[in-house]
Amino acid sequence: MANIQEVGQMEVLAELLKEQIGQLVNRTSLAKKIRVSVPTISRWLETLERFYYCFSITPWHKNVSRSLIKEPKIYLWDWSIISDIGKRFENYIATHLLKSIDLWNDLGVGKYGLYYLRNKDKREVDFLVTKNDKPWILVEVKNSANNSLSKNLIFFKKELNAPYAFQVLNTEEYVKTSCFVKEGIWMVPVKTFLSQLI
């Protein structure tokens, strides 16, 4: 499927990606570290995606003032091999969101997409789920016990007029309630949130 001579260097790239979870992928920086060209890095990233090692999420820029078109973010399909707890939790959510979107698209219940949000003022939200090319769900992931609502989540909820915005918490117990019973901004335990996706 791919004619790759430098298998060892590609393995180095795969290891480096574990540390890049949730960050913008800088192909130039990766190329310098591995001592290959930028086009080679791009080709290897495509190969790793084809073999289900990783997947990428691109930025959403429609209807975002001062939007910043940048590189995608990379996540791993096997989130369990990530050592950093915060990055692992973010990757875990990304994987479940993408699986849900793929299922909804396959069922034909709409056209769904997964993106992240970032503007020139460095405001950022981890994930945006779109429905029929319109913002639908904003998701900010919080692994820590700090339960203050994200200012960026509030900002983009107002900016994009998305019906739902969730700050998904890894430190709270399951709550038996519907996340989607009412539009707005909500803090929700991860078990509650994921139980209602599919």
Explain what this protein looks like in three dimensions.
With 198 residues, the protein is of the alpha/beta class. The chain has a domain at 85-195: 3-Layer(aba) Sandwich (Trna Endonuclease, Chain: A, domain 1). 36% of the residues lie in helices and 23% in strands. The protein has six helices and seven strands, in the order αααββαβββαββα. The protein has helices at residues 7-18, 27-34, 38-50, 85-107, 151-160, 190-195; strands spanning 54-59, 73-76, 112-118, 124-131, 134-142, 164-169, 184-189. A hairpin with a 5-residue loop joins β3 and β4. α2 packs across α3. The longest helix is centred in the middle third of the chain and has 23 residues, at 85-107. 30% of the residues are buried. The mean pLDDT is 90.
Report the portion of residues in β strands. Answer: 15-25%
**Level of helix content?**
25-40%
Order of helices and strands: HHHEEHEEEHEEH
Overall SS class: alpha/beta
The oligomeric state of the chains shown is single chain
| Tally of helical runs | 6
User: Which fold name fills CATH's third level, the topology of the domain at 85-195?
Assistant: Trna Endonuclease, Chain: A, domain 1
Global morphology:
globular
Task: Summarize model confidence as the mean pLDDT.
Answer: 90
Which CATH class of the domain at 85-195 is shown?
Answer: Alpha Beta
- Low-confidence stretches at least 5 residues in length (pLDDT < 50)? none
Strand order of the largest sheet: 2-1-3-4-5-6-7
The tally of strands reads: 7
Termini separation (Å)? Answer: 33 Å
Largest sheet: 7 strands, mixed
Known CATH architecture of the domain at 85-195 = 3-Layer(aba) Sandwich
